[in-house]
């Protein structure tokens, strides 16, 4: 019985050692990113605050954003501006990507302003982290690739 526990414990330790010494699969390495790195369907959350203007106060949003891998995206969702619930719909967005896996995006909102974000691509494009760069905002976002459920 003790040999089985020892063997199982050793297998776990060896397995963990292997996992910890092998480079993380899926981590985006500098110099690899292109527009294609931001291709697919993303579930997105944005949180923070609007610090100026009529709707100054807490901000939150969820959206589904689809990017074509050629520099264009479109998103739809729901947002809360200081407790006022409104649709979040853009007329389209354009983005750029650097080889170092950072980028920027300009979003033209329907019935709203044009907004801007800087972002970093992580996990081979499966996740994008962003911050809004417009004055009077303190909003960050997290986008994750949507997976397809199979049953």
Residue fraction in strands: over 45%
Supply the helix-strand structural class: mainly beta
Low-confidence stretches: 1-28
CATH level-3 fold name: Lipocalin
Quickly count the helices.
Answer: 1
Layout of helices and strands:
Layout: H1 2-21, E1 39-50, E2 57-68, E3 72-81, E4 84-97, E5 102-109, E6 114-122, E7 127-132, E8 137-145
Antiparallel strand pairs: 1-2, 1-8, 2-3, 3-4, 4-5, 5-6, 6-7, 7-8
Give structural notes.
By secondary structure, this protein is mostly beta strands. The chain has a single domain, classed as Lipocalin, CATH 2.40.128. It is 13% helix and 53% strand. The protein has one helix and eight strands; from the N terminus they run αββββββββ. The protein has an eight-stranded antiparallel beta barrel with strand order 1-2-3-4-5-6-7-8. Strand 2 and strand 3 (72-81) form a beta hairpin. The protein is globular, with a radius of gyration of 20 Å. 19% of the residues are buried. Residues 1-28 have low confidence and may be disordered.
List keywords for this structure.
Lipocalin, 8-stranded antiparallel beta barrel, mainly beta, 13% helix, disordered N terminus, 1 helix, 151 residues
In a nutshell, what does this entry contain?
The chain is built from 1 helix and 8 strands; from the N terminus they run αββββββββ. The protein is 13% helix and 53% strand. Strands 1-2-3-4-5-6-7-8 form an 8-stranded antiparallel beta barrel.
């Amino acid at each position: 019985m003790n040999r089985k526990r020892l063997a199982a414990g050793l297998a776990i330790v060896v397995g963990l050692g292997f996992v910890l010494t092998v480079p993380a699969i899926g981590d985006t390495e500098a110099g690899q990113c292109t527009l294609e790195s931001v291709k697919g369907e993303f579930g997105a959350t944005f949180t923070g605050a609007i610090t100026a203007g009529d709707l100054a106060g807490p901000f939150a949003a969820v959206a589904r954003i689809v990017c074509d891998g050629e520099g264009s995206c479109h998103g739809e969702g729901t947002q809360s501006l200081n407790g006022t619930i409104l649709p979040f719909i853009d007329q389209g967005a354009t983005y750029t990507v650097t080889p170092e896996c950072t980028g920027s995006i300009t979003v033209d909102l329907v019935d709203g302003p044009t907004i801007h974000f800087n972002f970093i691509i992580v996990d081979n494009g499966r996740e994008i982290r962003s911050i809004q760069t417009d004055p009077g905002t303190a909003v960050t976002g997290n986008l994750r690739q949507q997976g397809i459920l199979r049953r």
